């Protein structure tokens, strides 16, 4: 994001802080409201989290005078206003720094109980630091007043910060042309939660507060993270309205107004601590679903390979669903067992074919019920047409996400009369697999350099862009090509030119990390994709590659060459083509500037 956009974020955050602070204090001083959540604290933390850390000084420089001026206008003394301003900025910076490290991304959501605990710890740590800075400059206050203000800041950070980031994401999607969808169901559910909170706070003699916990959990399960924060905001808004005029918002228990306010704040924290782990667990469950879909897709490809193996090697396959009892037999499996094509075997039929009524087979399956790897055994069956046959069976257990065995997948081969064919069959099956692997390698590998080719490289790029967009992680695209390559071909011949390309490819392969992708996308042009690397580290790696090519390989008879390098960092909303286009533009700048250098896209 350009620096001017970060300046705009900082300016908006500062103005929002000023307006919210003035409005909140007006409600307290003029309307007698109990301010349960200090909303400005969440706004400032969101601004720090949204802004890359290298631009934090700019953000603080813009926030500082506006917050200070607001404090002066609200009646604070000059020295106290400076202290309160520094307190607010220090509090926000500490919370943002710890939160980003815990979550692994500036706008990421908690995906585990550990991260939820870390977020609470970040809020408490930042608020304690801010309170210690401001404490000497505050008017004398009781412990209850200190606790009230402290909890208001903690709640503001934990509830308002993610909501502001969520709203920011919605605004970005609207700016990219995506329509804003109105969720009527969630809106009605929020109104119902607000009404329930009103009843829970106003009904005397009975506590309905546990119902608020149930409603909070239901919102988390049904709508996810955003609904948690909206529900808590609705609870806080109802309690604030009930406190207008200095009233005690709590009626179901006999306490003072200050005690009632602290009670509601503690309830809000409890609700948040209850709902966030549930939402995190649901997100993790969704990730597991996506992984299961991916594995099922891989299983489908494996089945296709098994069909080929059946035809070439005479192998039959079957699957048994342990939940429904249904079985699926391939055509070859029916042939091996001596059964007619239209036969639909069930477990009772299978037991009748076995000399021991299936006891040995059941024993094999029971002993290996927890096995995660395939297990193999030989077994005898009675075929109506062929008599006793010996099958070599390999079985793989299938498990659901809870670890319960739900199905058996097996392949079988008749080895009664042709044991000596085992080696030949294994060779044929291995040859089929090798042919498939070689075909896949040829389709995805550049034959000259043995690097991923253009098709494979672009496919990996799209996958890496999808991961970076989903997890808000870093991704760098580096494009480089050989300087004056045409003159090398003209002076030394195309054979030498090809050898130069191979040497540059080898140097790039040596510089790349194990998880990186280095591909040749045409002629003397290459792409290097680095995931999880910030801009500074990526530039250092690109410069190291440039120097390695310039130095060449010691003892190589090839002419010395240099490369020009362009690099670009993934930005929210980029697709693979846009990322490479910016890297290509940077490469062009490097060429125009004299070659043999690294340029980074704006």
UniProtKB/TrEMBL annotation:
Q: Which SUPFAM superfamilies match?
A: Nucleotide cyclase, PYP-like sensor domain (PAS domain)
Main location as per UniProt: membrane
Name the Pfam families for this protein.
GGDEF, MASE1
Q: Does the keyword Membrane apply?
A: yes
Membrane topology of this protein:
Multi-pass membrane protein
Residue ranges annotated as transmembrane are 33-51, 58-76, 82-104, 116-135, 147-172, 228-246, 266-285
Taxonomically, the superkingdom here is Bacteria
Q: Which CDD domains match?
A: GGDEF
Any idea where the GGDEF domain is?
A: 473-602
Cite the entry's keywords alphabetically: Cell membrane, Membrane, Transmembrane, Transmembrane helix
Q: Which reaction does it catalyse?
A: 2 GTP = 3',3'-c-di-GMP + 2 diphosphate
Q: What is its EC number?
A: 2.7.7.65
Q: Where in the cell is it found?
A: Cell membrane
The record's annotation in PANTHER family points to: DIGUANYLATE CYCLASE DGCM-RELATED, REGULATORY COMPONENTS OF SENSORY TRANSDUCTION SYSTEM
Q: What is the protein name stated in its UniProt record? A: diguanylate cyclase
Question: Whose protein is this, by species?
Answer: Aurantiacibacter sediminis
């Amino acid at each position: 994001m350009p620096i001017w956009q970060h300046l705009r974020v900082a300016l908006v955050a500062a103005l929002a802080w000023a307006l919210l602070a003035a409005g909140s204090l007006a409600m307290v001083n003029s309307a007698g409201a109990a301010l349960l959540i200090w909303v400005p604290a969440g706004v400032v933390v969101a601004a720090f989290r949204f802004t890359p850390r290298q631009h934090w000084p700019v953000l603080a420089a813009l926030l500082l005078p506006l917050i200070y001026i607001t404090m002066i206008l609200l009646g604070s003394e000059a020295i106290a206003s400076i202290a309160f301003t520094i307190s607010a900025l220090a509090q926000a910076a500490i919370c943002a720094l710890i939160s980003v490290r815990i979550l692994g991304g500036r706008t990421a959501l908690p995906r585990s109980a550990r991260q939820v605990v870390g977020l609470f710890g970040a809020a408490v740590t930042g608020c304690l630091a801010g309170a210690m800075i401001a404490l000497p400059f505050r008017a004398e206050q009781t412990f209850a007043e200190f606790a009230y203000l402290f909890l208001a800041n903690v709640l503001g950070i934990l509830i308002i910060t993610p909501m502001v980031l969520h709203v920011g994401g919605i605004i970005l999607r609207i700016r990219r042309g995506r329509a804003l969808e109105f969720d009527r169901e969630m809106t009605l559910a929020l109104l119902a939660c607000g009404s329930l909170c009103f009843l829970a706070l106003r009904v005397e003699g009975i506590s309905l507060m546990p119902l608020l916990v149930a409603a909070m959990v239901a919102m988390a399960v049904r709508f996810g993270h955003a609904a948690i924060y909206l529900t808590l905001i609705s609870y806080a808004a109802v309690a604030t309205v009930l406190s207008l005029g200095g009233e005690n918002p709590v009626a179901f228990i006999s306490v003072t107004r200050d005690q009632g306010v602290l009670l509601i704040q503690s309830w809000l924290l409890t609700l948040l601590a209850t709902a966030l782990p549930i939402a995190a667990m649901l997100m993790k469950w969704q990730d597991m679903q996506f992984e299961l879909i991916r594995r099922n897709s891989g299983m489908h490809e494996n089945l296709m390979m098994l069909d080929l193996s059946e035809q070439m090697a005479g192998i039959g396959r079957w699957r048994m669903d342990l939940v429904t009892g249904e079985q699926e037999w391939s055509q070859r499996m029916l042939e091996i067992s001596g059964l007619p094509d239209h036969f639909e075997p069930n477990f009772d039929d299978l037991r009748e074919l076995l000399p021991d009524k299936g006891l040995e087979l059941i024993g094999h399956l029971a002993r290996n019920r927890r096995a995660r790897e395939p297990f193999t055994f030989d077994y005898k069956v009675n075929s109506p047409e062929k008599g006793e046959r010996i099958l070599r069976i390999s079985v793989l257990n299938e498990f659901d996400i809870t670890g319960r065995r739900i199905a058996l997948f097996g392949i079988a081969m008749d080895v009664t009369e042709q044991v000596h064919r085992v080696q030949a069959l294994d060779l044929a099956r291995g040859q089929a697999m090798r042919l498939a692997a070689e075909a896949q390698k040829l389709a995805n590998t550049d034959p000259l350099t043995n690097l991923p080719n253009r098709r494979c490289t672009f496919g990996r790029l799209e996958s890496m862009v999808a991961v970076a967009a989903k997890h808000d992680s870093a991704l760098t695209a580096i494009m480089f090509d050989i300087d004056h390559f045409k003159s090398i071909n003209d002076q030394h011949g195309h054979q030498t030119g090809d050898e130069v390309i191979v040497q540059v490819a080898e140097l790039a392969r040596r510089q790349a990390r194990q998880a990186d992708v280095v591909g040749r996308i045409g002629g003397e042009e290459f792409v290097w994709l680095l995931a999880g690397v910030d801009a500074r580290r990526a530039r250092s790696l690109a410069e190291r590659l440039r120097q390695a090519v310039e130095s060449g390989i010691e003892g190589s008879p090839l002419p010395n060459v240099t490369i020009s390098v362009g690099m670009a960092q993934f930005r929210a909303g980029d697709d693979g083509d846009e990322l490479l286009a910016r890297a290509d533009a940077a490469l062009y700048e490097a060429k125009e500037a004299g070659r043999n250098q690294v340029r980074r896209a704006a």
